[in-house]
Amino acid sequence: MTTELAPAPAPLAAPVPRPRIFSGIQPSGVVHLGNDLGAVRNYVRLQYEYEAIYSIVDYHALTSTHDPAALRTQTREMAASLLALGLDPDRCTLFVQSHRPEVTELAWLLTTVTPVSWLERTPTYKEKKEHQQDDVNHGLLAYPVLQAADIVIYKASLVPVGKDQAAHLELSREIVRAFNARYGQTFPEPKAVYTEAPTVLGTDGVRKMSKSVGNTIDVLGPPELIKKQIMSMVTDTQRVLRTDPGRPEVCNVCQLQRAFGDDYESLWDGERTARTGCVDMKRILAERITERYAEARDRYANLMAHPDRIDEILAVGAERIRPIAEATMIEVREKMGLR
Ligand code: TYM
């Protein structure tokens, strides 16, 4: 009798390392629609394809926020928001910037390859100088250097962000080029990855949606708040009478419909022919946004009721990436002659 031997098992293939991505978000409290459409939905999508590292950038926040209790609360709210929107701590790393303080050392080292003129021409620095005239601190000027350090300490090559971060990303690339030219190839040049809605306008229909402007739609807030914010939105200012035809391409409410259903063309048609009015459009948008974020809203409330769970996820995240940050710092110190 012959016995058939089972074929020897194939040797286990070594796991293929996934390219690394990084992004940062300020601890501005609960996320708003602009954060989600402009960046966070890419954080969620990309965690399945890449080795993803996401940071809540509390060092950056100190350039504008000086209330310690508020900073702590908002850091937790932002963490809970990101987890509620779909970041999975088993698939990506979520941590608080100041829990991996090596980045401040790298930021200092990078300042020595960064001409001051590059920083002075940064659009956000110019804006902030106007905005907080009695608090033009050094951190505001050095902000993009710390942002470059955030990315390159993990040698990330892709950075999911909204369009408002384009100038910062370009500066990060210039800093990387300057460093590599002086000390030898060390860091990859990071590239921005955008969503289909890289700039989301606020309820005023003019400026970028932003907490500091106060024109947000707080998607994880109570439905009544969402409704109130949407009903207050500025639409097509040339449409005065209900019977005037609308122009969906300039109406912010219509533009936002694109992200909440495939039928936006037919909704737009109703606007163009004045079959529907702005109030109808707002009502539809409010219903859709409330419904789309219903589960995330529950998850957010649940996480906020268990702050220890949030803190544990953040602590594990910071520990998980410690070896990457430490290895980069050993390499950089060596290359710069510090050891
Ligand atoms: P922050 O906290 O202002 O915004 C977080 C992310 O949300 C995007 N975003 C928007 N996108 C479209 N429309 C909007 N209205 C809108 N508002 C916010 C932002 O583009 C961003 O992607 N400097 C950064 C934080 C940062 C960072 C980094 C980012 C620090 N280090 C390293 C990338 C890599 C900031 O203040 O984002």
Q: How many domains, in number, for the residues?
A: 2
CATH fold category name of the largest domain = Rossmann fold
The CATH H-level homologous superfamily of the largest domain:
HUPs
State the shape. globular
Enumerate the spans where pLDDT stays under 50 for 5 or more consecutive residues: none
Name the CATH class of the largest domain: Alpha Beta
The radius of gyration over CA amounts to 23 Å
- N/C terminus separation: 70 Å
Overview of the structural elements:
The protein is mainly alpha-helical and 339 residues long. It contains 15 helices and five strands. The protein has helices spanning 33-46, 58-61, 68-84, 102-111, 116-120, 123-131, 138-152, 166-183, 223-231, 252-257, 264-272, 278-292, 294-304, 307-320, 322-336; strands at residues 20-25, 51-56, 92-96, 158-160, 191-193. The chain has a three-stranded parallel beta sheet. It has a two-stranded parallel ribbon with strand order 4-5. Strand 4 (158-160), helix 8 and strand 5 form a beta-alpha-beta unit. The structure holds tryptophanyl-5'AMP.
